[in-house]
Amino acid sequence: MVSSAEALRAQEPAVDPGEAPAAPRQPVSIENAVEDRAIAERLDDILSSTGWFENATVEVREGVVFLDGAAGSQDHRRWAGELAANTEGTVAVVNRIEVRADLRSTFGRAGEESTRLYGQAVQAWPLVLLALVIALATFLVAALIGRFSRGFLSTRISSPLLRSVVVRAITIPVFLLGIYFVLRVAGLTSLAVTVLGGTGLIGIVIGFAFRDIAENFLASLLLSIRNPFRSGDLIDVAGHVGIVQNLNTRSTVLLTLDGNHVQIPNAMVFKSIIKNYSSIPSRRAEFLVGIGYDSSTAKAQALISEVLREHPAVLETPEPLVLVDQLGAATVDLKVQYWFDSATYSPAKINSALLRLSKNALLSGGIELPDPAREVVFPQGVPFYRRDRPAEKSPASTKQKKSPPVDDQAVTIGEGNLQSETREAAERPRGEIPESSENLLKG
């Protein structure tokens, strides 16, 4: 006598283990009342008849089907779950069937996945071609807009860095719009919206991460707009004195008077006090001269004024001054102020020449130049007596003072030609300027 399970297997078609399983197209029906036991028996018979599963067990409680056992592939496991879900009377399915690690099935799944990807690629290549065309068109349009903007702004914005920033601000939105269309064509609409919406957030994150770099970049932008100095100017900034060589997006490069390159971050340059010695041709310098209390102050002023008037490096306008600065412990201090052409002459060399000439003029005019550290004044003098013979004048008092040597040259060999160090440094070989590929300064 044939059992009901065997009759069921005889009626069902044979299943080839190599074929991919397919879910039942029609719901599995059970005659009469649908009970948990009937559902379990029916599913157990079908799973056993396929031969795909090991130790397959089916348990049904209140319409919830619990599947246990092992399957040869993920497709077989999925098939069993869909079969249980389509069975009449099933409320829910808990699929606990495990998949065995089978090398043959793994390679089979890899081949099936490759075939599926190849089919999708064949279907998607027109969209890929369209996306490439849109990307190329976007690049060309952005390049044309950038070239037109650069030519339009070349006469309106003098700063090359600001002009570059404005051109990028115009072309980047065009490029982002092209990326948006490319993602839309690829079917990634949500990703396209995310890219456009996250651009601002990414900018904020990058700004915090590279705060110092962004600060120097903004400082270079402002310096290139305001132009507090030009290439070749002699400036004093952040405690460094040098000739401006280069201004890039990170730093300002100075050539110091001793021949060294100094790079100062633009943020520090922008925040510091800048002295530009080349912005105005004329420049004032001063020095102090101390004379004795017994000497004529007016005569000393006249002698120094004569030296200033006769020297070729001293400007007539503004007028040079010789002022009484203070009454010291042993000297009357005179402050000498004069103006000169800073683009032509060196302040250190002119000071040397004027101090030398003033010293000679004062000594020749009988003006004492005492040393405050050693000068001791006795208003009534210091008499000296000997007991064995009458007092006589000291030999030192009868010795005549030697006249100072004649030294009335405007410039000596030691003072060079009074030429400005800026010009001398510019004439020296500069070597390789750091980061000299770009210069955001005028001149």
Q: Overview of this structure, please?
A:
It is built from twelve helices and eleven strands. The chain has four domains: 4-100, Helix Hairpins, CATH 1.10.287; 120-209; 219-276, SH3 type barrels (Roll), CATH 2.30.30.60; 282-372 and 406-423, Alpha-Beta Plaits (2-Layer Sandwich). The chain is of the alpha+beta class. The protein has helices at residues 4-11, 36-50, 74-85, 103-153, 160-185, 189-209, 211-226, 266-271, 297-310, 347-364, 395-398, 421-427, and strands at 53-61, 64-71, 92-99, 234-237, 240-247, 251-256, 261-265, 274-276, 282-291, 321-327, 332-341. Mean pLDDT is 77; it is low at 1-19 and 394-399. The protein is rod-shaped and about 145 Å long. It has a five-stranded antiparallel β-sheet, with helices on both faces.
Descriptive keywords:
disordered N terminus; about 45% helix; five-stranded antiparallel sheet; Helix Hairpins; about 450 residues; alpha+beta; three-stranded mixed sheet; 11 strands; SH3 type barrels
